[in-house]
Design goal:
This protein has 182 residues and is of the alpha+beta class. The protein folds into two domains: 58 residues; 90 residues, Arc Repressor Mutant, subunit A. A three-stranded antiparallel β-sheet has the order 1-2-3, covered by helices on one side. A two-stranded parallel ribbon has the order 4-5. A hairpin with an 8-residue loop joins strand 1 and strand 2. Helix 2 crosses helix 3 and helix 3 packs across helix 4. The protein is globular, with a radius of gyration of 16 Å. Its EC number is 2.1.1.63. It comes from Kitasatospora arboriphila. It catalyses: a 6-O-methyl-2'-deoxyguanosine in DNA + L-cysteinyl-[protein] = S-methyl-L-cysteinyl-[protein] + a 2'-deoxyguanosine in DNA; a 4-O-methyl-thymidine in DNA + L-cysteinyl-[protein] = a thymidine in DNA + S-methyl-L-cysteinyl-[protein]. Belongs to the MGMT family.
Length: 182
């Protein structure tokens, strides 16, 4: 298995910097500050081209100048039905759009045999909470049928989800929002 190395990227998010685990294949894991991560003992990435690509695209996204993160993904930490659901999310729900947990469950095709009402939506919620590729696989765009739903990312998780959805124009900015203007 290809070795992991880490890139730490400053962000304006309530959670602070993000950490991205990279391999020669692509980004294998993304975490918000303070979250436990796979391969936590791996060294910092020293490949300047990789560091520049990751930090540059994230800076453009957080600055409101990029809508699509075009970093290659190493799917090693998402397998089976979890990967199917995450890939469907990436394919179907672009910048500035949202989908409910239940809608994503239905679109994925993974839960066709589930008869219990709400079980597929709850399972998708758990899958989003276990998303190893936060932001690149935009679990912040998956919401509850009656509101925002939950979000990982440590104690400021829901604030982070609101920040990202405000950046993307899904939610109106509040007076204290510190995102890009215009």
């Amino acid at each position: 298995m290809e070795p992991l190395s880490w890139i730490t990227v400053p962000t304006p998010l309530p959670t602070g910097p993000m950490r991205l685990a990279v391999t020669p294949t692509g980004v294998a894991a993304v975490s918000y500050a303070g979250e436990p991560t796979a391969g936590a003992g791996a060294p910092e990435c020293t490949e300047r081209q990789v560091v520049d690509a990751v930090t540059g695209q994230l800076a453009e996204y957080f600055g409101g100048r990029r809508r699509l993160l075009e970093l290659p993904i190493d799917w090693r930490l998402a397998t089976g039905p979890h990967r199917v659901v995450l890939e469907r999310l990436v394919a179907d729900v672009g910048y500035g759009r949202t989908i409910t947990y239940g809608e994503l469950a239905a679109r994925s095709g993974v839960f066709e045999d589930v008869a219990e009402p709400g079980l597929a939506a709850r399972t998708v919620g758990q899958m989003m909470g276990a998303n190893p590729l936060a932001l690149l696989v935009p679990c912040h765009r998956v919401v509850a049928a009656d509101g925002l739903g939950g979000f990982g990312g440590g104690p400021q998780g829901l604030e982070t989800k609101r920040w990202l959805l405000t950046l993307e124009g899904v939610l109106p900015p509040t007076l204290d929002w510190n995102g890009p203007v215009g």
